[in-house]
Structures are given as C-alpha cells and as structure tokens.
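Dear colleague,

As promised, here are the two records you asked about, laid out in our usual form so they can be pasted straight into your sheet.

NAME FIELD: protein one
SEQUENCE, THEN STRUCTURE:
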Amino acid sequence: MTRVALYPSHADSIARRVANYGSFAAAAATLGVARTFRDIDVLWVNYSPVTVALPMAVQRALRSTPSVVHVLDLWPDTLTATGFLPGRGAARMAVSVADRAAKSMYAAADRVAYISPGVGEVLSSRGVPRSKLSYAPMWADESIYGHEQRGAERGFGLDADDVAVLYAGTLGRAQGLETLIEASATLREAGLVCLIAGSGTEEQRLKRKAIDLGADNVRFLGRLPSAEMPRLMAAVDVHFVALNDDPLARITMPSKVQTILAFGGAMVGSVVGDAAAVIEESGAGWTCAPGDARALTRLLHQVIDEGSSGSRTRGIRGRRYYDAHFAMDVGIDRIEKLLLAAVESGEKCR
C-alpha cells in the first residue's frame, strides 16, 4: 500500500471539498502511479471520489493496464443527493465535471461492477454496454461483525424489559432521521428506547427535535469506537436503516444493511428500492416509505409486539441470506472473476 498526501477537509465548502478530492487525485496520479503501479497486471478502481479518474487515466496511458471500475457510489448523483451542492453556477460546473470524469472511466474500463441492481440499470441507461456490467455487492467486516450474544447486563442504560432500536451511522441530511425521533416519541410509554450512535451535520438539530417532542427515550451516544459496536448491536432488539426520499435512495445499498445481516440482527428500514427489497426478501425485517412517521410507528409497535424472540428469528433469517448473497468469500470470488476477465479483454486488445 502507498499512502499519498492530500488536503484534509470534509467541510461544507465546495472549494475545500474540491481541494480534498483534487489533491488526492494529483498525488495518486504522480506519486502513487510512479511508485506502486509499475508491475501490476490489472487495476481495481473504487471510483469514490470520482477524481480517481485521473490516476486511472495516467496508469492506462503509461502502461495500458486493464481495469475494473467498481461503482460503490454513483457520481455525480451523490453530490446532489447529500445536499452538499447548492444550485449555483460553481455547483453546476462541479456536477458537469464529475459526470464527464465518471463517463471517461466507464469508457476506459474493461469491466464495470455495481453494488445494487438499480445502479446497473442507471449505468446501462447512461451508455455503459451491458457486456461490461456485472453485479458485485460488497460484504461486511466479518472479523468484527460476527454474531455476538447479549450479555447478562445489556449496558448503554438499557433495562432488561426495554425494547431497544438502534441507529448507528452518519447523522446527515441523506438519512432522514426525523421520523425515527417522531415515532420513538410516540412510543415512549410503550417501552421503546431509541439509541442513536454517530455524529454528523444534523446532530444538533436532531437533538433539539427530540427535546421539543419530549422524547426522553431517545438517547444520543455520540461516536463510538468500532470495537464497541458488536456489544452495542447485541444489546438492542432491532436496527434502523434510513435514507431520505431522493431518487438516488432507490438504488442505494447502505453498507449497514450487509453489516446488520452479517451480525444476525433484525432491522426496520425507512427505505425504498433495492435496500427495501433486500430487507424484505431476506426476512430480516420490515420496511416503510421514507418520511412516513406513522408507518414507522406501526412497524416499531410490531417489533414491540413480537418481542425479542421474534427479533432473533428474523436475525437468523437475515444471516442465512447474507451467507448466500453477500458473504466475503462470495464477493471475493465475484471480483476475482471480473479481474481475470479484464486481463483477458486487455490481452485481446493488444
């Protein structure tokens, strides 16, 4: 592995974010390509951020290296879906540049992999030949998120008879967590406790909303070390997955879906599209439309009614589904086949 210098910033500033992405691309294209990529047979490219198109192009120009582009985030769509770019001229230019960079990578790649069925459809509609496209979803960190049993003491302030729902992740605009707080406030007398672990740009606003609703059963845990997450996940009855109602959400597969399935946890998803299909097909949980607090309240009430035994049953189903569709050995086998196919394609073109 070669680490290269970059400008470190994730601020809500177009200039600083461009400097972050651009500095990495420039350093990777010069230092990275020069030092690391001299004797490789094939290049696997995670194109997030999309500025990685520059080192990919340099490597291809210098050494004609075949490549697999793995679309983990769809660009430029991800810029607008997160609300990062306002509707100004500079923002439109950034979207246009990102779009051209992404299309250049698709054209140059020997294979283009995608992590959810909907993304494959979008890529096809944007001109990527279906002969290049392959479904290759990602797996969870199985060394951390194997199933862990709940301890005698649940911890995290939970009593034995609490029904606990957990959201763990970024507290941002794309998650639409307002409905979770609203539903939790409605169910505070029913014994529901909502734990929120993580941080983000919306954290303070969500805390104010919980206070305004009198939702004293909503507890913000802040950011926790990854080593603490298995114990937290084991302490709760169900996990919450959410995205807002942006069109991109229909084809987005949050990585936490695989994580929860691998852990053997039940989940409630305020999602639509590909993520909702996995939750429902796996039998691991329930789904409702984003932004529908009443529907989410009904689902959480069902979690309360089914109790911990019902959640365990759903979690077992989810783990079986993960092993069949998302497990690391299954995913690595897919990617190895794509890399070999890219090498064969490159040899035929020489």
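NAME FIELD: protein two
SEQUENCE, THEN STRUCTURE:
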Amino acid sequence: LKDQTDETLHANRKVIFSDGGLFHLKEDPVKPGTYYSIHTGEFGTLTSNQIVKFNGGTNVNPEQMVFTDFTPADNSDGRYRNPLPLSDGKFVATHTPTKVADQNLMKDFRLKQLSPDTSGRYVPGASLTGGINKTVSWWDPDTLRNFSGLLWELEAVEVVARVRPAAPVTPLETPERSIFTEEAVDEAALRNWMKANDLAMIVTRNQTSRDRADVTQPYNLQVPGGVKTVSPKGGKIYNISHYQVLQADQIRAYDNGPSGRRSIAQTLHEPKAKNPANPGGPAGSVKIAADGSTAAFVPARRALAWQTTDAAGNPVVRERLWVTFQPGEVRVCASCHGVNKNDQSGAPPPVNKPEALRDLLRFWKTIPK
C-alpha cells in the first residue's frame, strides 16, 4: 500500500513491512481501543519479533491510527510472542533472548513480565515460571518421537472475572431510516423475518465512491446514466452496472491432493436470499441503482465476498475478503471500501438515501410471509 498511497493522507509513519504483518493481536483491558501485536514476517519467525502498539478504537479515523515501538525495533533484548496486557495494568509476554529469526536457536520461549526502561520501551524481567520441564512423546506420523526438557510457554491468557458484555446495538443512520419510514416498513418486523429465514441485508449508498487513498483497484467509477465519482487527477473511468455476491460453499476435492472439502466462492444461490430480478446481470447479482446504491438479502452465518461488474458481467472492483453476517443484521457501507475522510473526488462520505434499499423493501412486501 505504501507504494501507492499519498504519505500525507495518514498520520502513521512506521512501516509494516510487506513480507509479514501483525500477529497475536490483543486489546488493552484497561485502555480499550489500544492494541498490541507482534510485527513480524509470515514465515520462518515462529511469529516472534518486536511488540508494537497502536490506537484503533471504534471512534478512531483510520487515517489517525499510529503504530509505535513498544519494544525495541532492533530486537536488542530478544524476540517476543503473544503480548498480554492485564486488567491490573501489568504486561506479560512470551520472550526469548534470541535476537535472530533462527528456529533452531529459539528454544527458550518463556513467560515474562515486561516493564518500561528509562526510554519508555518495555523490557523483559525474569521468567515467571522458572521453566516447565517435561518428557513428552508423539507419533510423526508413524515414527515415535520423544522430547525431554523445558517446554515453550505460549498463548497465555488472563483468568479473571469479567462482566458479560451487552450485545452491541447499532441503529440505522438517517438515510436508511428515512427509506424505511417512507416505505412504511417496520424495521423490527423485517429483522425478525430475516432472523427466521437465516438472512441478513447488505446496503451500500454509492458503489462509485472510494476512499481517496484506495487506488490499488479501478479508481474512477460511474454508473451508466447515473452517478459518477472521478479523481481530479483524471484517469480511466470504469462503468459498473451490477453488484455480484459470492458465497462460500464447502466443495469436495477430487484431485490427487489432500481430500476433504474446501470453501470455494460460488455465485449467490441460497434459495431463501430472494432479491429483485436483475435481467441481463450475472448470476447472484443485483442492479446498481442510478445513485450508485445497492441492497441485497444475503445468507447469514456464511462467508461472503462480492464484486462490482460491468454491463457484461466482467468484474471491475473485487472484494477478496470473506465477510460473515448475523441473522437479522442490516449492515450499511456508505462507500465501496469506505471513506475515511474524503473520497477520490474530494467529497465526504455519501449521505444519499439509497434508492436500491427502497426497491428492495418494495420487493420484500411482495414475498409471501
């Protein structure tokens, strides 16, 4: 992302390198919205390296999220794994004095309490357990293996009484609530119907609007005969006509490789997820309205992905993450991939009343209950 993104659009200045990422994410129970993670490579590190800290609360704009070094970036005091902030303000992590990512040398992962030094960086104290010495054996797969010595101490958890959190409630925002009111649809009744049918609803206000920093896919978009969102920098403009939903189906493999089922993306075909007809659109799709909006019923508790396509059904902007919804959930995205502050044209997030939602609610009224 760094190669494509304007550096002035975000506050963070610490590079999260491309051959790895963040592992073992933990939220601070004393300071909700403060997170700790291991910043390391994906392979050959046993997911150990330095601990980083960042702010990522629900009300923090992503452009203002900042990563800082919680432990030294040069691993001068060793490597860490499984950060664990505690409810009494203390901090525990797995640590090895080994500085390099050599799996043959990292044989002494121990639980230790970390404390700040004079620079404010956190450093490890003595082992909390003194080491756990065991003799174990196992089959691998037909050969008996044995080990005798100190075990690794990984993935510690804090055992402490907590108040059970209340289920979060996110009310619909004004644009969507207005559509429900104008169409005389009782929101609770619709949600109850979706729960009974194991369905959810996904709504986007304007599929042509994208965050100004999100330039790694087709960037300037328009609905033929409708809304258009284009960067002042210009560039090719892509037409988008349909919004295609993909569901993960467990499909058995018949090749010579490992047997079993795989989650394979298939066009939406859940019989209960009935949506308005979309003549000429690809399978599993709904029409993108002239204002750029889309709305669709989708199966709950199933991994989903989606993409916008042109009039012929060719994918334009692809979403390649699995997203899952709860029964009765109505999830609204103002823009495709969201807008942190301004979209590619410099405008703020869309606040239009999504006309596609109006069409979906009118269609819902015709479905036998």
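A couple of things worth noting about protein two: The chain has a mean pLDDT of 93. The longest strand covers residues 242-252.

Best,
R.
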